[in-house]
């Protein structure tokens, strides 16, 4: 693996954890324990720079760090987070790397957000009863008014922020030789 | 705002548990998780509780740290308990008022599920309380090595994790500085609606990213200058080595947990 790529992913993973613990607030009143946090941003940047595989690797690192340092939700929280962010960044990175344009970046983020929401809906229905012992019918009750809106909102905020930050970073990254010219 | 964040959970102690090889602790945790999902009786939980208390005792960690790790999940634990109390039916009616009632089976299921969560969080938090992050990273790399055969880059993952660990305090300090600098210029990170909150994050995020990339750049240069060329043919300064106590603890724990999971 290229050394600069490795250090970039390492440092951005650390940044993810920091954003996760410093920037967080509830966004859906129905499920106040589901907090928005900005930890997905650096992972999405990695997905755009280095592709979906590297982004999933970074998500794995982040989830392990999450378990080590933060402990929120224990191993379950970390695992659910890996599923959610892993799906988002994989789909977004995959679509973007088919053809690197600003348009495909937007398409990728939208598709990734939708995919993440779908995956997390299923994951919550299937895994929450196993992990937390909450009856499945109760999960289904909170699914439509709580879990799905939460994931959609979180994903779109992170997507919007990623586009804004990426735009501002682009010139800096080009001068560093990290980001190559877009196809358009 | 950032002062009350506890970075890391490791607590230094001179104890048997601290001295164990991190691979032992990771493997035992995995067996514990499997075991707790196999248990279907309260007597099984009693035996498991003894196991947890023994480990806590041997680690010389004050029980209050274990309790603190359960706190973030208190909402879900109580939620689970209450849901089962009122929704799960079966057995004798213990209490009733209009359409609300608590029955024996609900009480049993609620207690059962809540205890499972508590035990799980308590025991997994012991891993992070008794093992330093670097030790954990080391242990994980060694445990992931067999998967190299199917293409998993174990060394690279471990290296990236070590880099991330090293930069967490540095970047956290940076984040705090940038936050204060921007606040001094009138930035508001807490007020406003969702859109405003998101927009207000830009002055914080962009400098953080630029800083992160710059540091990564410098680190890559420094590593290259010191002849880093990848995982092949590298030696290790801190070598993990199994001692007799590691074998003994592994065997005892795995047998114990397997028996508990199978029979209780």
UniProtKB/TrEMBL annotation, chain A:
Species in which this protein is naturally found: Orenia metallireducens
Keywords, comma-separated and alphabetical: Cell membrane, Membrane, Transmembrane, Transmembrane helix, Transport
Cellular component annotations (GO), alphabetically ordered: plasma membrane
Membrane topology value: Multi-pass membrane protein
Recorded superkingdom: Bacteria
Record-linked Pfam families: ECF_trnsprt
Family indicated by similarity: Belongs to the prokaryotic riboflavin transporter (P-RFT) (TC 2.A.87) family.
Function: Probably a riboflavin-binding protein that interacts with the energy-coupling factor (ECF) ABC-transporter complex.
Protein localization: Cell membrane
Entry-linked PANTHER family: RIBOFLAVIN TRANSPORTER RIBU (PTHR38438)
Segments crossing the lipid bilayer: 12-36, 43-70, 76-96, 108-134, 146-166
MF terms (GO), sorted A to Z: riboflavin transmembrane transporter activity
Protein name: Riboflavin transporter
From TrEMBL, chain B:
Chain's role: Transmembrane (T) component of an energy-coupling factor (ECF) ABC-transporter complex. Unlike classic ABC transporters this ECF transporter provides the energy necessary to transport a number of different substrates.
Self-association and partners: Forms a stable energy-coupling factor (ECF) transporter complex composed of 2 membrane-embedded substrate-binding proteins (S component), 2 ATP-binding proteins (A component) and 2 transmembrane proteins (T component).
Transmembrane segments: 26-58, 70-88, 109-130, 246-263
CDD domains reported in the protein's UniProt record: EcfT
Protein name: Energy-coupling factor transporter transmembrane protein EcfT
Gene (name only): ecfT
Subcellular location field: Cell membrane
UniProt superkingdom: Bacteria
Pfam families to which the protein is assigned, alphabetical: CbiQ
Similarity comment: family membership: Belongs to the energy-coupling factor EcfT family.
Cellular component GO terms held in the UniProt record: plasma membrane
Topology of the protein relative to the lipid bilayer: Multi-pass membrane protein
Organism: Orenia metallireducens
Keyword annotations: Cell membrane, Membrane, Transmembrane, Transmembrane helix, Transport
UniProt key word Cell membrane: yes
GO molecular function: transmembrane transporter activity
Entry keyword annotation includes Transmembrane: yes
